[in-house]
Design a protein that fits this description.
With 369 residues, the protein is of the alpha/beta class. It is built from 12 helices and 17 strands. Bound molecules: nicotinamide-adenine-dinucleotide (NAD), ligand AHE and zinc ion (2 copies). One zinc ion (ZN) binds next to loops. One of its GO terms (biological process) is formaldehyde catabolic process.
């Protein structure tokens, strides 16, 4: 079949909206009509050419919501008409990662997913007779996409897909980083570095965890109003200070924060977030994704003296078993999505979503098909 899609033909160039060819689902696969998709900074990161796994040409997008159109042989858990959120971290339930009970990082199809291919080693997408790469196993910048059954979470049909698509990455990641990865306790002092979709969602998570003080850090002061609306108690712009931001936070908190979250993808800021933590117990969580060749550094003494440095993907959430409950939490009013949606755009306008993100003018743009 044909599908209208935004194709990344090469790094650092605008996406091109074309009609691509899409093969139907093979065994264990599902054809989904994407109704809406968010644009996450990770899509921009890969498009920039900084992603060591970035492949071109590809159909990017990993923050979608859609409806099942057709299932391949052997698919038992989904049927046409089901509402689904694509998962860039699948949940097979059978690999040693899934069975460990220690991680959400199912590895059952990670190798082929990283190669931009379906689990059988081939692509379902092509354009003018040449294959296009899938992206993160999801490729939600296409009206129709094919995914493995294990890469789909079945969600409440009442949930508006043009909103809950954002639970496919950004909002779930920020909230999950606080609740699952850091396990912030009531009364804690928390610092959030970077107030995009991820950092603002981490603020929501910190409010849910009943943190006592939530310090929001960004170099764009236009982000502070929304941070305060969501529950930040303090806002700090590193550009307003002559000393490094970690010194500012240590001074503000009488020794450092209990938890910090890096939501930018800047390795220097990752160091600052770690070094903002309290001696003896502070924990810093890396959420931001850094470019190829970049590395983190700090004095080992920072860890010897009791700080913990960790990271998280998709907020530690297991997509198939836990995301449906998170959608229900949104339906019950426990999670805010509306303030995160800055713009609603059509697929033809998708490059504008990237421009708005780079200009710091949007939290999330949602593309509706
Ligand atoms: P975004 O572009 O919407 O927001 C980034 C924010 O960081 C902006 O508000 C910007 O002003 C701020 N910023 C930039 N440089 C800064 C600095 N030096 N100090 C303080 N603030 C600074 O991005 P997003 O969609 O929220 O994504 C944030 C990061 O999280 C990206 O690196 C993305 O790839 C990553 N991410 C990771 C996961 C995961 O599972 N680990 C999931 C989603 C996104
Ligand atoms: N391809 C990059 C890594 C990118 C990355 O870390 N992705 C996160 C999700 S970001 C969503 O916006 C992730 O899930 N990581 C776990 C994994 O298995 O990819 C690189 O550096 O190679
Ligand atoms: Zn993302
Ligand atoms: Zn698994």
């Amino acid at each position: 079949m044909k599908s209208r899609a935004a194709v990344a033909f090469q790094p650092n160039a605008p996406l091109e909206i074309v009609d691509v060819d899409l093969e139907g689902p093979k065994a264990g696969e599902v054809l989904v009509q994407i109704k809406a998709t968010g644009v996450c900074h990770t899509d921009a990161y890969t498009l920039s050419g900084a992603d060591p796994e970035g492949l071109f040409p590809a159909i990017l997008g990993h923050e979608g919501g859609g409806v099942v159109v057709e299932v391949g042989a052997g698919v038992t858990s989904l049927k046409p008409g089901d509402h689904v959120i694509p998962l860039y971290i699948p949940e097979c339930g059978q690999c040693n990662f899934c069975e460990s009970g220690k991680t959400n990082l199912c590895q059952s199809i990670r190798v082929t997913q990283g190669q931009g291919l379906m689990p059988d080693g081939t692509s379902r997408f092509s354009y003018q007779g040449k294959p296009l790469h899938h992206y993160m196993g999801t490729s939600t910048f296409s009206e129709y996409t094919v995914l493995p059954e294990i890469s789909l979470a079945k969600v409440n049909k009442q949930a508006p897909l043009e909103k809950v698509c954002l639970l496919g990455c950004g909002i779930t990641t920020g909230i999950g980083a606080v609740l699952n990865t850091a396990k912030v306790e009531p009364g804690s002092t928390v610092a959030i570095f970077g107030l995009g979709g991820i950092g603002l969602s981490a603020i929501q998570g910190a409010v849910m965890a009943k943190a006592g003080r939530i310090i929001a850090v960004d170099i764009n002061p236009e982000k502070f109003e929304m941070a305060q609306q969501l529950g930040a108690t303090d806002c700090v712009n590193p550009k307003d200070h002559s000393v490094p931001i970690q010194e500012v936070l240590i001074e503000m908190t009488d020794g450092g924060v209990d938890y910090s979250f890096e939501c930018v993808g800047n390795v220097g800021l990752m160091r600052a977030a770690l070094e903002s933590c309290h001696k003896g117990w502070g924990t810093s969580v890396i959420i931001g994704v850094a470019g190829a060749g970049e590395e983190i550094a700090t004095r080992p003494f920072q860890l010897v003296t009791g700080r913990t440095w960790k990271g998280t993907a998709f907020g530690g959430v297991k997509g198939r078993s836990e995301l449906p409950g998170i959608v229900d939490d949104f339906m019950a009013g426990k999670i805010q999505i509306d303030p995160m949606i800055s713009y609603q755009l059509s697929l033809d306008e998708i490059n504008k979503a990237f421009e708005l993100m780079h200009a710091g003018k949007s939290i999330r743009s949602v593309i509706s098909f």
